[in-house]
Specification:
Bound molecules: adenosine-5'-triphosphate, magnesium ion
Strand content: 15-25%
Mean pLDDT: 91
Number of strands: 4
Strand order of the largest sheet: 2-3-1-4
Shape: globular
Structural class: alpha+beta
Largest sheet: 4 strands, antiparallel
Length: 162
């Protein structure tokens, strides 16, 4: 087990339907902690830049339209094995193939409007975190959250940091 950080996005379809809190709870219940977070509205060009790897795929235009159709919540999740665990909690890209209890099975509307994004490797996690967050935002959070404060009782810790 290694302590990792990964980039998670709650996509516009889920933010629009006020599912943000429910989705964050699913991460927290499985041991992933939100160490940085922001709600932003991407332009089509910014969405394209984030999903640049898919630029030549037939669904690229539709994906960029969708990702810029409303606000998203971009967040850094931290925990043991966070990259893989985040993707397990999200479920398969196609919600019809996602396992019961996953975010995409519970909430996704379609293959495109599938409620969540998660980095797929340590390299993409690093790049994607830097796409949305400055070093100060992420490093501050990482130092803060991994310090002795984590040994405090849960209610006290919650009061202190949120
Ligand atoms: P994400 O990168 O968003 O976490 P993923 O890694 O499960 O999803 P990718 O193959 O990276 O899947 O595709 C990126 C996104 O593009 C998908 O989450 C989905 O929103 C959209 N997408 C992928 N394949 C298709 C498709 N065949 N038709 C329509 N949209 C698609
Ligand atoms: Mg992907």
């Amino acid at each position: 087990m290694s302590l990792e950080k990964t980039l998670s996005i709650i996509k516009p379809d889920a933010v629009k339907r006020d599912l943000t809190g429910k989705i964050i709870a699913m991460f927290e219940e499985k041991g992933l902690r939100v160490v940085a977070q922001k709600k932003i509205w991407l332009s089509k060009e910014q969405a394209g830049s984030f999903y640049d790897i898919h630029r030549d795929r037939p669904f690229f235009g539709e994906l960029c339209e969708f990702m810029s159709s409303g606000p998203i919540v971009a967040q850094v999740l931290q925990g043991d094995n966070a990259i893989e665990l985040n993707r397990e909690i999200m479920g398969a890209t196609n919600p019809e193939q996602a396992e019961a209890g996953t975010i995409r099975k519970e909430f996704a509307l379609s293959m495109t409007e599938n409620s969540a994004h998660g980095s797929d490797s340590p390299e993409t996690a690093k790049q994607e975190i830097r796409f949305f967050f400055s070093g100060l935002e992420v490093d501050f959070a990482a130092v803060f959250f991994s310090s002795a404060i984590l040994n405090f009782p849960k209610f006290e810790r919650t009061n202190k940091i949120r």
